Amino acid sequence: MELALLPRRKIPRYAILSHVWETEEVTFQDIANLNKAKRMRGYAKIIGACNTAKKNGIDYIWIDTCCINKESSTELSEAINSMYKWYGRAAVCYAYLSDVSSKDDHGDRHSTFTKSHWFTRGWTLQELIAPRKVIFLTTEWVDIGTKATLQESISLVTGISSEVIVGRKSLDDVPIAVRMSWAADRSTTQEEDAAYSLMGLFDVNMPLLYGEGRKAFIRLQLEIIKKSTDHSIFAWDEDILSSIDGGGLRGLLARSPAKFRGFGNVEKILVPAPDNDPPAHVSISETIPYSITNRGLSISLPIIKVYGRPGRQGWKV
After folding, report:
1. Would you call 94 helix, strand, or coil by DSSP?
2. Of 234, 235, 237, nearest to 258 (Cα)?
3. Which of 19, 110, 150, 171 has the greatest number of CB atoms lying within 10 Å of its CB?
């Protein structure tokens, strides 16, 4: 086993590892000294991943712990901005679940599989969606299925539709609020990573500024707005008590993905496309653009007639 630096234009077929970081992970600096690396707990994970790839006829595997030189801010920024693309181009992604045993019934909705810590981490969201093929492996490195064969259980625990999980539905067809809601109950070690881990899901890039805290999530939303007219980015809710404790209202943009909790069922409203032949329907967002200026939000929204209980009706923006 050795690290290999490969030319960008001739990237061979490779596997990629998805996992939850634990104590004594082997870093880029550690792997240079194998005698030291072998004494670390994380070394067994690297060996397990390499052996799995080799068993499947794949000569290369990318592992984030030891394949990114985090001492180089340039390399770290490039890696995080490219992560979604790298996972998407992998021949297979091995999702290693260190808290799941091969002895469990993984089809059971209450199994250790659906309760795995892997489903609660921010970075593993894109690592589930981006790859064409994800194979789930237990702590014993036993294959328990793919994201296709386990799609019902995965959908249940993540709130992501099976169509998205297996790639039958493009992320472009999923409202922004829905994509944000997938991350509402996930956590990251660094506060900024709550935003950085979502860049790939919205196909945006931005520089990393560790230390900016929750401002990173505001920047993410501003980058999304630059390329999208989807109004659902404003479909979030502020907890009343946290608003009072924090000193009042918070503005147009959410402070974290958690504010989108409960908005996983947002749908696009289709209206007749103007001047279209043959007739077609498009999302309201596509016909009514908006912009954020130094004076605030400039937007036009339709008023839609809605019906509640018999005999009662109203209007909704």
Report:
1. strand
2. 237
3. 19
**Residue 305 CA, distance from chain mean position:** 35
40 closest CA partner among 26, 54, 57? 26
- Each residue's pLDDT, cut to its tens digit, for the chain (317 residues) gives 777 777 778 899 999 999 999 999 999 999 888 888 999 999 999 999 999 999 999 999 999 999 999 999 999 999 999 999 999 999 999 999 999 998 877 666 778 999 999 999 999 999 999 999 999 999 999 999 999 999 999 999 999 999 999 999 999 999 999 999 999 999 999 999 999 999 999 999 999 999 999 999 999 999 999 999 888 999 999 865 455 445 555 688 999 999 999 999 988 776 666 555 555 555 656 667 788 877 788 887 777 666 665 555 545 44
Residue spans of alpha helices (H) in the chain: 28-31, 34-37, 43-55, 64-67, 73-89, 123-129, 151-158, 162-165, 176-182, 193-196, 215-227, 240-245, 284-287
Per DSSP, the residues of 119-188 read GGBSHHHHHHHSSS-EEEE-TT--EEEETTTTHHHHHHHH---HHHHTTSS-GGGS-HHHHHHHTTT-B-
Residue 220: strand pairing partners? none
Helix (H) or strand (E) holding 248: none
Give the distance from CA 101 to its chain's centroid. Answer: 25
Residue with tokens 């402070």, as numbered in its chain: 255
Cα–Cα distance, 266 to 113 (Å, whole number): 28
Place of tokens 């707005």: 225
Picking from 153, 164, 165, 162, the residue whose alpha carbon sits closest to that of residue 114 is: 153
Other CB atoms within 10 Å distance of the CB of residue 128 = 22
